[in-house]
Design goal:
This protein is mostly helical. It contains twelve helices and no strands. It is elongated, with a radius of gyration of 39 Å.
C-alpha cells in the first residue's frame, strides 16, 4: 500500500484536526498505533509541524468524513499520476560518502566467498559498477595490494536478507545448470540461517592423519614392567666400614 508524503507530519495534522482513531491514522501513514497515541500525548514528534494532506492532494474531505463516521473505514491515498512509479529504485544503490572507501573491500569479500554471484548481483548489492568488480576479480585494481575482504553486511552496505536472496538465486541457477558442487561450495550457496543449521563436517588436519587412535591418557599399560618400591631409609644407608679402614689424622 502506498504511503503519504511526510508520514509523521501528516499524522500530526490528522491527530490535531480530525477525530479519526489512532489505528486508522497508523494504518494510513505506516506507523504503529502507539506512536500515533504518543503524538496525541505530546511524547512523539514534538515540534513537528502538521502537513495538510488535503491541501497537498493526498486525501479528500469526503475520505476524512467517511473515516470519522466509521471507525472501521480505512483511509485511501488519493491517486497522484505524477507519483506513479516513484517507489521503484532506478540505477545503482546509493552509498554514503563515509562508506564508499570500504566498498572495494566488500566487493573483494563477495568475489572471494561467493564467486557464484554475477557482476550484476554484486553491483546491485553494494552499489558499484561492473568494471570495478571485473578489476577486483582479475586483481588489476589499483589498490588491490592494500585491500582486505570485509563482509558488506558488517559495513552496512546491504542487508543480510538481500545477500541471502542473491545467494539463493545463484544456488537455483547453479542447480539448473546441473553442475556438481563440493560441500564447501554447497555451504556458500545457502543462506546464513540454513548454513548455521548444518552439522559441521569433522575434518582431520593432514599433519595428524593416521593418528586417530593415538591417546595421551595416563592409563597404566599392562606391558609396563614393575619397578621396585624404594623406601626412604634406603637412600640414607651408607656402606659399612671398619675402624681399620679409617685413615689416622697426621696431626695426632
Amino acid at each position: 500500500m502506498a504511503k503519504p508524503l511526510m508520514a509523521k507530519a501528516t499524522a500530526v495534522w490528522l491527530v490535531d484536526n480530525t477525530t479519526i482513531s489512532f489505528k486508522q491514522i497508523a494504518d494510513f501513514v505506516g506507523m504503529h498505533e502507539l506512536e500515533v497515541q504518543g503524538i496525541a500525548d505530546g511524547d512523539v514528534a514534538a515540534g513537528v509541524k502538521g502537513f495538510d494532506p488535503i491541501a497537498n492532494n493526498q486525501l479528500t474531505q469526503e475520505e476524512i468524513d467517511a473515516a470519522q463516521n466509521n471507525p472501521l473505514h480505512k483511509l485511501k491515498l488519493k491517486f497522484n499520476p505524477s507519483a506513479a512509479g516513484e517507489e521503484k529504485r532506478r540505477g545503482p544503490r546509493y552509498t554514503p560518502l563515509s562508506k564508499r572507501q570500504d566498498r572495494p573491500n566488500s566487493i573483494l569479500w563477495l568475489v572471494k566467498f561467493h564467486p557464484e554471484l554475477s557482476d550484476g548481483q554484486i553491483a546491485k548489492l553494494v552499489g558499484t559498477t561492473k568494471p570495478t568488480i571485473q578489476s577486483i576479480r582479475e586483481r588489476t585494481h589499483w589498490n588491490i595490494a592494500n585491500m582486505q575482504p570485509i563482509d558488506p553486511v558488517a559495513l552496512g552496505l546491504c542487508k543480510q536478507s538481500e545477500l541471502d536472496t542473491a545467494v539463493q538465486k545463484a544456488a537455483a541457477k547453479k542447480a539448473a545448470e546441473g553442475g556438481v558442487m563440493s560441500d564447501d561450495e554447497r555451504r556458500k550457496l545457502v543462506s546464513t540461517e540454513q548454513s548455521l543449521e548444518m552439522d559441521a563436517a569433522p575434518k582431520i588436519p593432514t599433519a595428524i592423519e593416521g593418528l586417530e587412535t593415538f591417546s595421551l591418557s595416563d592409563e597404566p599399560s599392562d606391558e609396563k614392567e614393575d619397578e621396585p618400591i624404594l623406601d626412604a631409609d634406603s637412600f640414607f644407608n651408607l656402606p659399612k666400614g671398619g675402624a681399620d679402614d679409617e685413615e689416622e689424622d697426621p696431626r695426632t
